[in-house]
């Protein structure tokens, strides 16, 4: 999946809590991407502002869209979600929340995700529903 063409941003800092719940999704599986978009779709205040399936596109898309939330897969085309997390950590702007979703839920990946700045880490096979729960909590805050 390519980065979405229209990112609808003015290039300013991320929106404050209580405003529209803008979400950027980085996922290389079209089927999982579709499930994530569906999970976001019925949250009234939520809007997917962009998506990517590769590291470079994700970093650029995040820079342009300045979302409140990043949903990030670890395994990506041409690299890994850890590269995206490291770039975010080095940048001046960071999403309010970073949610890692993966088919590789090892303790090593969980620890590495936290060390790189992820706020949440979920196994796609058994914890997918928790993504929506976290988004609802963020939106209510």
From TrEMBL:
GO annotations under biological process?
phosphorelay signal transduction system
* Stretches assigned to the Response regulatory domain: 22-139
Name of the protein this chain belongs to: Response regulatory domain-containing protein
Keyword Phosphoprotein, does the record have it? yes
**Domain of life of the organism encoding this protein:** Bacteria
UniProt keyword Phosphoprotein, yes or no? yes
**What UniProt keywords are attached to this protein's entry?**
Phosphoprotein
UniProt-listed Gene3D superfamilies: 3.40.50.2300
Locate the 4-aspartylphosphate modifications and list their residues: 73
The record's section on Pfam families has: Response_reg (PF00072)
